[in-house]
Predict the 3D structure of the following.
Amino acid sequence: MNSKVRLLNQYWTDTYFHLHYPHKEKISHQMVRILQLVDKQEGTGINEISSHIGVSHNTASEHAKRIIEKGYLVKGRDPLDERKVILCITDLGKEVLHRNTSLDEDKLEQVLNQLDDDEKNLIEQALRILSERAKQCM
């Protein structure tokens, strides 16, 4: 693996480790990945979950059922194809997802307050570019 890739990964994991929110909910990594998928990809159903996390349709369905029971997702119908069931993330699900995947905004603000404007702009630009390119990989 490219040493630059390893270095960027190390920077990311260090940043997340030090700046993430304290985890309140008992939620599995699989559940977080499913919530991310539903949040980022409109029209997600059980087939998409199954493919995304590499499990059988039945297993994906059971995961979705447990997440729905927690109130993080709701079932709906695809407006373009009423036969297809799609999942939508609830406001509670968005809060849980944010706390389990995002940086703590207060901690991040403390770090950013230590930087000058050029450093802040450089970080923002670099993360924006990385985000845009990552979206093209999907």
Remarks:
- The chain has a mean pLDDT of 94.
